[in-house]
């Protein structure tokens, strides 16, 4: 891989997330400080770069999974009578809060988030406001979808909205952290062959596993087993979290296993 650097600093090269990409042309990558680097991607990247990126991903995913574990264990120690079933709303918000803090911190430290085009306070505040707005809209979207799938409209509105908040922290928040408040980029990543980096691929897997897990969690609810985890929306929340943890494990393993066949084309 050959890199022709204009005004970019050497430290900026660490921000490149083009591992595994191959192309017949020269691509321009915008770095975190606004510099432009021309990258020749005609040669395959070394396995060392792949391994380093996958190690970063695996380490961050391990921390995220540990956060879910701590969000379950710590309240059980500090709050009398706490349980995943008995105080389910508290557990939901505990997991959602920890997932949010851990994701935002890790993706900021890793520099995965796309660089901002402007560095003014006004632009940064606008970007933050749009991110918060998208998260709120995501909560309303999940709440509406769950109601349309048969959840009670009024009787369990708080429980349903709490599930929507949890799903937003597991899915939409990760989209904001990886791609920024850019709906077009979100659509691109979840379209056919839309991934442009290993982090895009992991985003597809983690979000997909979380949504599928929550959907599968709804199947036991109408059964007459009379189990505490069949109370709405315990099984859906557990399914979503289990799916999220599954995605965290599967994503780096799948990418590592298929690294020789993965290519990322610039759009």
Structure commentary:
InterPro entries: GPI_biosynthesis_protein_Pig-F. Pathway: Glycolipid biosynthesis; glycosylphosphatidylinositol-anchor biosynthesis. One of its GO terms (cellular component) is endoplasmic reticulum membrane. With 267 residues, the chain is mostly helical. It folds into two domains: 2-40, no CATH class; 48-257, no CATH class. Helices cover 58% and strands 5% of the residues. It has eight helices and three strands; from the N terminus they run E-E-E-H-H-H-H-H-H-H-H. It has helices spanning 47-78, 88-110, 121-148, 157-170, 172-179, 183-189, 198-217, 234-257; strands at 2-5, 26-30, 36-40. Strands 1-3-2 form a three-stranded antiparallel β-sheet, with no helix packed on it. Strand 2 (26-30) and strand 3 form a beta hairpin. Helix 2 (88-110) runs parallel beside helix 5 (172-179) and helix 4 (157-170) packs parallel to helix 8. The two termini are 20 Å apart.
């Amino acid at each position: 891989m050959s890199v022709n650097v204009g005004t970019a600093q050497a430290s900026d090269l660490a921000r490149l997330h083009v591992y595994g990409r191959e192309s017949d042309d020269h691509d321009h990558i915008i770095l975190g400080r606004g510099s432009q680097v021309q990258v020749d991607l005609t040669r395959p990247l070394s396995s060392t770069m792949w391994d380093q990126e996958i190690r970063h991903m695996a380490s961050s995913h391990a921390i995220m999974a540990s956060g879910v574990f701590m969000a379950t264990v710590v309240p059980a120690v500090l709050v009398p009578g706490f349980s995943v079933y008995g105080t389910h709303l508290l557990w939901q918000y505990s997991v959602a809060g920890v997932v949010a803090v851990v994701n935002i911190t890790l993706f900021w430290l890793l520099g995965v988030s796309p660089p901002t085009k402007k560095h003014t306070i006004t632009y940064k505040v606008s970007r933050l406001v749009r991110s918060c707005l998208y998260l709120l809209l995501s909560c309303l979207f999940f709440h509406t979808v769950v109601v349309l799938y048969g959840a009670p409209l009024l009787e369990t509105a708080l429980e349903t909205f709490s599930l929507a908040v949890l799903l937003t922290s597991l899915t939409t928040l990760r989209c904001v952290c990886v791609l920024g408040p850019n709906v077009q980029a979100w659509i691109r990543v979840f379209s056919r062959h839309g991934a442009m980096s290993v982090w895009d691929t992991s985003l597809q897997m983690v979000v997909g596993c979380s949504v599928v897990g929550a959907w599968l969690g709804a199947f036991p609810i109408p059964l007459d087993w009379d189990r505490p985890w069949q109370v709405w929306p315990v099984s859906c929340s557990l399914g979503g979290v289990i799916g999220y943890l599954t995605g965290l494990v599967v994503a780096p393993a799948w990418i590592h296993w298929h690294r020789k066949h993965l290519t990322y084309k610039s759009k």
